[in-house]
Amino acid sequence: MKLVTLSCLCFLLLLSEGNAQQIYFKDATLQKALLSNTAINTNGDDNIDINEARSFDGMLNLRGLYIEDISGLDQFPNIISLNLSNNNLKKVDLSAFTKLEQLEINHNWLTKLDLSKNPELYIVKCSYNDIQSIDLSKLPKLIRFHATFNELEELDFSSNPLIANIDVEHN
Q1: Distance of CA 45 to the CA centre of its chain
Q2: What value, to the nearest 5°, has the Cα angle with vertex 108 and ends 73 and 160?
Q3: What is the reported pLDDT for 6?
Q4: What does the pLDDT read at residue 165?
Q5: Over the Cα atoms of the chain, what is R_g?
Q6: Mean pLDDT by 10 residues, the chain (171 residues)
Q7: Considering only CA atoms, which of 102, 25, 89 is closest in space to residue 37?
Q8: Mind giving me the DSSP string for 112-135?
Q9: Full-model pTM
Q10: Are 122 and 142 within 8 A, CB to CB?
Q11: Which residues contact 109 (CB under 8 A, 6 or more apart)?
């Protein structure tokens, strides 16, 4: 009886691993870019599953793809560098990327950028948006901050002791 029970448990475990949960992306262009990345789509199929997303811990370059929605990208919590520049993003939720060290999100349509859940960030480039305010107080490792051509009126770098490069012209 114990052997039958153990065999059934092993079978169910293999079955559940073989049918890993697929991630839904609202933006077809985003999905296509991720599917074509062999470091992400490791099994080469037509879907990105939760295991592939969670195991990816590299740099993700999604620059210039005209992406409008990054829904689904939150399933990649181990991304350390993310380039979303030159897209059509109006809002982004970056709260899942707690290990993110570098962010480039220039040339979009953002009015807000919440980085409060990204304490590892040391480079932030968010120029050519419509950002009106940004709280940098949760970024103690911040070294470089570029936010030219936005609508910023006030910035506080008192919580960023390592800051060495600031470019905020034309605000």
Answers
A1: 22
A2: 80
A3: 43
A4: 98
A5: 19
A6: 46 50 97 98 96 97 98 98 98 98 98 97 98 97 98 97 98 95
A7: 25
A8: B---TT-TT--EEE--SS---B--
A9: 0.88
A10: yes
A11: 88, 89, 90, 129, 130
Helix (H, G, I), strand (E, B) or coil at 30: helix
Rounded Cα distance between 142 and 121, Å, is 6
Residue 83 main-chain phi, psi, to 5 deg: -115, 110
The owner of tokens 């929605």 is 69
State how far the Cα of 150 lies from the Cα of 168, in Å rounded to an integer.
8
The two structure tokens encoding residue 48? 């990105």
| Helices and strands (DSSP H and E) totals, the chain | 3, 6
Question: Is residue 5 packed enough to be buried (19+ CB in 10 Å), middle (13-18) or exposed (0-12)?
Answer: exposed
Tell the residue number behind the tokens 């080469």, with chain if given.
44
The CA distance from 165 to 94, in Å, is: 23
